[in-house]
Amino acid sequence: MTTVTQMKCACPHCLCIVSLSDAIIVDGKPYCSEACANGTCKESGGCGHTGCGCA
């Protein structure tokens, strides 16, 4: 049996891999930040993680 502990952020613009224990879960989907979770990462200049495509 394999246990998944990390997933890609559910935001379509985001490249982050997020630990499920640290993720912000919205509607059962993991997000790396509040900006991604509430859909404002593009407007707010990104999720704050280096090298991500949100900005």
Automatic annotation (TrEMBL):
Matching InterPro entries: Metalthion_dom_sf, Metalthion_fam14_prok
Domain of life from the UniProt record: Bacteria
Transmembrane among keywords: no
Molecular function, one GO term: metal ion binding
Keywords: Metal-binding, Metal-thiolate cluster
Pfam family for this entry, one: Metallothio_Pro
SUPFAM superfamilies tied to this protein: Metallothionein
Name the UniProt record assigns to this protein: Metallothionein
